[in-house]
Specification:
Blueprint lengths: L2 H10 L2 H11 L8 E5 L7 E5 L4 H8 L19 E5 L5 H9 L4 E5 L3 H11 L5 E4 L2 E3 L3 E7 L10 E2 L10 E7 H7 L7 E4 L5 H5 L4 H4 L4 E6 L9 H8 L3 E6 L7 E7 L7 H11 L1
Parallel strand pairs: 3-4, 3-10, 4-5, 6-9, 10-11
Antiparallel strand pairs: 1-2, 7-8, 7-9, 11-13, 12-13
Helix pairs in contact: 1-2
Amino acid sequence: MNGKMLRALLRSGNTQFAKDFADAARQQPQLSGRATMVWTRGDGKPVHYRRGTTDLGLINSILLKREGAGEYWLPDEVPHGTILDIGGNIGVTSRYLAHRFPKAKIHTFEPVPTNVAVLRDNAAAVSSVTVHPYGLGQENGSFTLQPNSDDLRNQGNFSLTAQKEGVTGVQVEVRAVADVLKDSNITQVDIIKIDTEGAEWDILSAIPPEVLSRVSWIYGELHTESIANPTAFKLLDYLSQWFVIDVHKPLQKQNFNFDACNKAIAGQFREFRRRHSKARF
């Protein structure tokens, strides 16, 4: 048993998941099909994943880290009545947030059909998650997304902004953010998690300012890799009107994580931001 497999076994308590995790890390493309693991340290319910893919890495980094060290951990005191999970992928983050904030209403948005199929199964385990099988943007339309990675394991990584010649894409539906909020009767958003492979500016800048300016916390990943006209720093400048922003960008990586805490509550969470940014990043 190698080190990766042993660590995954200790965290998950599931032998099959530990083996799949180690095999996926070694890039074993012959692995196929779906499997489940019971999230024993969380809600005690099955989590669905695709074998041989980066789904296992998501589960490891979001669900299996120790309390307080997970990628999307926030203190109880952060307002969390309504949460938007934008770029829901297979629903791992939504499951985590539903467990972390059991009274919250969580809306998860994912346009890629192959992701949505797994996302629906994972969201079915909790009643507080509403699945929206489309993407968000500035306007309604149908768009072609392309794989944003040459890694065969990364089946969930599709982008509108990183287009390549000769690559087959997938047609997806995108809806205007303002329309979706209105139709869903969402007037107050407390937390936004976003990871949309370069579309972060298009989405967040389309949220009505009267809604965006009252969000307590925004966090996720910003993308510049393989994108012709990256807008990550443009977005951070825009958000700085209302938020104190923490960024971690390693020199060797183009994509990077960020946290944006509303200025109205930033003083309350100054120490948490200082300590947790080190743990998260």
